[in-house]
């Protein structure tokens, strides 16, 4: 429990005890004792107000506390003890709510420092010993075991080192370093243990620099002004002026006190904290952790959004996107190639190996157990399975035991530009194909960005440490206004600092390298499901549900909460103004004025509680059961080999003669008829009507049904072409026509599946 919350709780309990205790004494026939207890109950609130008001004046700020201080002090001086006690209890309850709304997790870098190693394994006098970080000096020889964080910058002396640098650079795929290459602190060893030589102390290394950046950003970030204080700038002088006028023209100081009591801005003091607390609670129900009211208020006014790429717009993990068998000598199909590769990759601890195995299991491909397995960390793995000798790994590794055709070199050049990892496979000394792995775009990302635009975001920027080519590949089609690539943590911090000058700015990230920018932004938003703990600590909002569209929901809730809070503020101040006029003309005594003010308080609090009923920003009015959504996704996974087979057929047609292509095309046609077309028919017949009922409208799935018709049309054209090819086996023009038709079918199928995935997610239960 933090000190602010504890202090507010103690003051509230004292004020409540004084008010209730005095009431009991008054009913028991001891009005004088009751008066003293009421006065005693108001003293803690008065002291708390004096402290806060003095602090505000030192900062040259005028807040809502000024009127409250005057009303309690005036009531005590004029011996209106019950009035003072009522006002004190009311203000203490508002202070308690406000402290609760602003209570947030510590941002003192505890998690970031928790990621940092406390010691390192270092060779001293020929022995391996564990030494504190501050004892590391340049030239020390360090051992980094699997899963450990590098403690200091240095160079590798082991032949291979595989590092996960996603926390530093945003690069999702692991990076392989050879002996003599420089490595940075903060990277995690994703491969086997390796040795390195330190080139800097831990305090002067990369990771320590990021820690210092976050600390500097947090200290330089000015606190957001309270919403209530902004409206108090004109309300406080108005109330004081009316109070002075009432005293001047009537000569009765009680009228002045009554005006101040009625003017005590409880709609400001209570409505805003209640709305904020309710909004924080509503966000929590949606898997959004908001650490304080300031973050929520700032989010409501933000118009500039900065996104990291890896783990934010993308999933942050490698996935199989395609199997390329151009120029392959080994005649095996895609499913068998994936089975052989994944069976061997089971024996490796490499991150990419795990992704290959996951792809095979997602397709329900049974895996075998290889023999004679040998691995060069970061390069590749070899073994024997079903009597076949397998080589799986990098181009350099596979070419040691197999001849790889020239087109594969061009493929690798293209994938390097696109940020795709290539896993080459050779079977019995013959090149068999390449598995292409990439960090795929989140399914909900396009929809999330559209929802953010809908909620008022004007500028969206991708801010990533990844290469420009990779960043722009992801940004295509997302309607992103600007891409800033190859950004260091310091570059990200500078970009956010500059953007803040033009208005409130939101930064969304998940890695340690994002922590400084998250701390510097007006509102930092961290992907907390799999993101680094440091980013979650530096951020003001954490998306606990691993879905980017939750940010749009948070923004929607913030906007609605602000609107409801302002309704309460203006309605409450309007009623307060009427009561102030009545008090000024002598129609309300101070005590009755306090009771009227309490009635106004109840009204504004009830209105502010409407925040709890804010509906999610979702397109669908109803939800599809999560089990049904998983079933639909599983069907897509089962169809993944069909898309792989289609892609392979397209690639091989270019090098095949018509009489060679006919059997392959007929086999593909059989697969399409037996697996793909029944699935699309079932979707149109059974799935789409159910989803249309959830989305509402006349025919929300019309465009998707049109895509089905186009898929069936392309297949009919393909089948007719095969029939013609049987009678004209030497017609190369017809073969080219079939190839173009398959290209169109492949494109529309991949687009159609992606659209269906997005729709399924938009209607899924939480």
Automatic annotation (TrEMBL):
Compartments where located: Cell membrane; Membrane
Where do transmembrane segments lie in this chain? Answer: 6-28, 66-94, 231-250, 256-280, 569-588
SUPFAM superfamilies of this UniProt entry? Calcium ATPase, transduction domain A, Calcium ATPase, transmembrane domain M, HAD-like
Q: List the coiled-coil residues.
A: none
Enzyme category, top tier: translocase
Q: Which UniProt keywords apply?
A: ATP-binding, Cell membrane, Membrane, Metal-binding, Nucleotide-binding, Translocase, Transmembrane, Transmembrane helix
Note the InterPro entries from the entry.
ATPase_P-typ_cyto_dom_N (IPR023299), ATPase_P-typ_P_site (IPR018303), ATPase_P-typ_TM_dom_sf (IPR023298), ATPase_P-typ_transduc_dom_A_sf (IPR008250), ATPase_P-type_domA (IPR059000), Cation_Transport_ATPase_IB (IPR051014), HAD-like_sf (IPR036412), HAD_sf (IPR023214)
Q: Which Pfam families did the record assign?
A: E1-E2_ATPase, Hemerythrin, Hydrolase
Q: Please write the reaction equations for the catalytic activity of this protein.
A: Zn(2+)(in) + ATP + H2O = Zn(2+)(out) + ADP + phosphate + H(+)
Q: Which CDD domains match?
A: Hr-like
Q: What is its EC number?
A: 7.2.2.12
> Which coarse location class applies to the principal site listed for this UniProt protein?
membrane
Family of the protein in this entry: Belongs to the cation transport ATPase (P-type) (TC 3.A.3) family. Type IB subfamily.
Q: What name goes with this protein?
A: P-type Zn(2+) transporter
- Specify the species: Castellaniella denitrificans
């Amino acid at each position: 429990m933090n000190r602010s919350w504890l202090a507010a709780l103690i003051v509230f309990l004292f004020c409540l005890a004084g008010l209730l205790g005095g009431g009991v004494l008054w009913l028991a026939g001891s009005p004088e004792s009751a008066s003293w207890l009421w006065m005693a109950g108001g003293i803690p609130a008065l002291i708390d107000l004096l402290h806060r008001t003095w602090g505000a004046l030192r900062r040259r700020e005028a807040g809502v506390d000024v009127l409250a201080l005057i009303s309690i002090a005036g009531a005590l001086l004029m011996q209106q003890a019950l009035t003072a006690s009522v006002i004190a209890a009311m203000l203490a309850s508002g202070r308690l709510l406000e402290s609760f709304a602003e209570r947030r997790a510590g941002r003192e870098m505890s998690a970031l420092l928790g990621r940092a190693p406390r010691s390192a394994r270092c060779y001293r006098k020929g022995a391996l010993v564990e030494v504190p970080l501050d004892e590391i000096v340049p030239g020390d020889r360090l051992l980094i075991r699997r899963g450990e964080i590098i403690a200091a910058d240095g160079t590798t002396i082991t032949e291979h080192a595989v590092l996960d640098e996603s926390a530093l650079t945003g690069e999702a795929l692991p990076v392989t370093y050879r002996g003599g290459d420089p490595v940075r602190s903060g990277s995690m060893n994703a491969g086997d243990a390796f040795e390195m030589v330190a080139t800097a102390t831990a305090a002067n290394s990369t990771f320590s620099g990021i820690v210092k950046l976050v600390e500097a950003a947090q200290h330089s970030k000015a606190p957001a002004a309270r919403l209530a204080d902004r409206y108090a700038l004109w309300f406080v002088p108005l109330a004081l002026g009316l109070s002075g006028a009432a005293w001047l023209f009537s000569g009765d100081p009680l009228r002045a006190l009554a005006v101040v009591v009625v003017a005590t801005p409880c709609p400001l003091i209570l409505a805003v904290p209640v709305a904020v607390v309710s909004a924080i609670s509503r966000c929590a129900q949606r898997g959004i952790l908001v650490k304080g009211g300031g973050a929520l208020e700032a989010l409501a006014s933000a118009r500039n959004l900065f996104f990291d790429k890896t783990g934010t717009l993308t999933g942050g993990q490698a996935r199989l996107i395609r199997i390329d068998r151009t120029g392959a000598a080994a005649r095996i199909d895609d499913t068998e190639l994936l089975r052989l590769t994944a069976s061997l990759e089971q024996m490796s601890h490499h991150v990419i190996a795990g992704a290959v195995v996951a792809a095979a299991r997602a397709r329900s491909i049974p895996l075998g157990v290889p023999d004679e397995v040998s691995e060069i960390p970061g390069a590749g793995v070899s073994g024997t399975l079903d009597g076949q000798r397998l080589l799986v790994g990098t181009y350099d590794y596979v070419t040691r035991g197999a001849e790889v055709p020239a087109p594969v070199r061009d493929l690798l050049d293209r994938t390097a530009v696109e940020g795709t990892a290539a896993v080459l496979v050779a079977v019995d000394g013959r090149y068999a194909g390449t598995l292409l792995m990439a960090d795929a775009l989140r399914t909900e990302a396009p929809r999330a960005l559209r929802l953010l635009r809908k909620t008022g975001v004007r500028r969206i920027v991708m801010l990533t440490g990844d290469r420009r080519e990779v960043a722009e590949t992801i940004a295509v089609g997302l309607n992103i206004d600007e891409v800033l690539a190859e950004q260091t943590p310091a570059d990200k911090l500078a970009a956010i600092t500059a953007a803040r000058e033009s208005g409130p700015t939101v930064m969304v990230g998940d890695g340690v390298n994002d922590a400084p920018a998250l701390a510097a932004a007006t509102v930092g938003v961290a992907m907390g499901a799999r993101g680094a703990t440091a980013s979650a600590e530096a951020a003001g909002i954490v998306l606990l549900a691993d879905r980017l569209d939750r940010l749009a929901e948070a923004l929607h809730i913030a906007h609605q909460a602000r609107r409801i809070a302002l309704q309460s503020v203006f309605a409450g101040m309007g009623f307060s103004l009427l009561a102030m006029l009545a008090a000024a003309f002598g129609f309300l005594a101070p005590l009755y004025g306090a009771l009227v003010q309490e009635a106004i308080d109840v009204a504004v609090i009830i209105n502010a509680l409407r925040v709890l009923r804010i509906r999610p920003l979702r397109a669908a009015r109803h939800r599809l059961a999560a089990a049904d959504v998983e079933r639909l996704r599983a069907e897509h996974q089962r169809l993944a080999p069909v898309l792989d087979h289609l892609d392979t057929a397209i690639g091989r047609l270019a090098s095949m003669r018509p009489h060679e292509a006919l059997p392959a095309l007929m086999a593909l046609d059989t697969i399409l008829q037996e697996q793909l077309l029944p699935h699309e028919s079932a979707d149109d017949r059974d799935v789409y009507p159910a989803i249309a009922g959830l989305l509402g409208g006349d025919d929300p799935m019309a465009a998707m049904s049109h895509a089905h018709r186009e898929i069936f049309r392309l297949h009919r054209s393909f089948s007719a072409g095969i029939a013609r090819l049987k009678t004209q086996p030497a017609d190369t023009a017809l073969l080219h026509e079939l190839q173009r038709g398959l290209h169109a079918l492949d494109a529309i199928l991949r687009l159609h599946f992606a659209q269906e995935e997005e729709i399924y997610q938009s209607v899924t239960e939480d």
